What we know:
By secondary structure, this protein is α/β, with parallel strands linked by helices. It has 15 helices and 14 strands. The protein has helices at about 25, 30-40, 55-65, 70, 75-80, 115-130, 180-195, 195-205, 225-230, 240-250, 270-280, 290-300, 300-325, 370-375, 385-395; strands at about 1-10, 40-45, 90-100, 105-110, 135-140, 145-150, 165-170, 210-220, 235-240, 255, 285-290, 330-335, 355-360, 380. The longest helix is centred in the last third of the chain and has 26 residues, at about 300-325.
Amino acid sequence: MKYIVLVGDGMADYPIPELGNKMPLEFADTTNMDTIARRGMSGLVNTIPDELPPGSDVANLSLVGYDPNLYYTGRGPLEAGSMGIKLGKDDIAYRCNIVNVKDGMVVDYSSGHISSDESRELMEFLDDKLGCEDIAFYAGISYRHLLVHTNGSESLKCTPPHDITDREYEEYLPSGDGQKIIRDLMEKSKDILEDHPVNKKRIADNKRPGNMIWPWGQGRTPNIPTFAEKYGLTGSVISAVDLIKGIGFYAGLDIINVPGATGYLDTNYLGKAEYALDSLQEKDFVWVHVEAPDEASHAGDTKSKIKAIEDFDSKVVGTVLHEIDKSGEEFVLLVLPDHLTPISVRTHVHGAVPFAVCGTKIKSDAIESYCESSASSGLLFDNGHELLPYLVRLAKI
Length: 397
C-alpha cells in the first residue's frame, strides 16, 4: 500500500466578492481534485486546536498525525532540524525573517521575496556583527532564517510578521521576559543592514531592501516519535519550506530536495510530483507540500491564488493521480490545505479545511467536487491529527 498526502498550503478561504462570492477552491479549475472527491470521500478537518496559534507549524504536525498539543514546541526548532542545526538543552530557536520596514511599519514580511543568495550574505554579515557566545544567526531560504539564543526565554510573546503587513510594528515587538535582548538585536539590525551592498543594489534595481530582522516562533527541540515508530511505514517529504522539512526531520522521513522548488509561485510543481512518484518506488509514504497558494494569500492577490491552486491541481495532483492509477499499486491519496489563509485578512486563521481522499479501499460518497461547501456535507474530524491514522487503519482492513 502506498500513502500519498498532497498539501496546497493555505488554499482554503472565505467567499470573495470579486469571484461572485465563491471561494478560490470553488472558483478555480480543480479537475483532478474534483476527481478525487468524486471517486472517494470528502469532509472537513480541524488541523489547529483552538488554544494554539493558527500557523503552518501546528497545522502540518496535525496533517501527519502528530497531536500538536503534545508535540508542538515552536516553529523555530522545527526549522532548525531541517537546517541540520543541533540545538542544546538551553538553546531557544527563533524563526527569523528578513523584513522590509519603512516609517515604523512592516511593509513586506519577505522583503520582496529576497533571493536566498542575497539573504545569505545579509545573515552572514549579521552573524559577524551581532553574533556572540549566546547569539547565532543561520541563513535559510529566501526571507526565512534562524536565530538561536542560548539561555534565552521561550515565554516571549512574538507576532509573525505576515500578520502585521502595512501596520505600525511598535506594539507588536516581542514582549515579556527577555524582550530587551531580542528588541535590541532587531534595532541594531536596521543600522547594520541599511547600507549593506546587497540592499543598495536592491534599491537601485527598484526592489525592496531587507532592512530588519523579525524573530518569532521560538521554542526548544521537540521530542516526537518517528513516522516508522508511529505507523510502521517508511516515508519521504518534499517541500521548499524549512518548517515542513523540519517536521520531516524529527519524524525520521527522508527529505527530498527538488531542483527549482522555491516556496513561491514560480516553484517547480511538476518536479515535486515526479520526485514524489520516484520516492514511492522504495518508500511507503510521501508527503508533498506546496507553499504557493499561501504566499498569494499573504499578498492579498486573488488572481495569483487562483493560478497557484490550478497549477497545484494540474501539475502536482493530476500527475500523481494519473501515474499512481497507471502503476497498479494499492494506494491512498489525500489532498487538502493545511489551514485557512483568507485573502481578506492575508494571514492564517482557525477553522476547518476541506479534504478529499481516494484509493483502492476508499469507498465513494455522494460528493462530486472539491471545495469547502461540498466538503461540509462529508465527514468531520474535529482533531486533525486523527485523520491520517484513520486512513492508514482503513487501508489495512
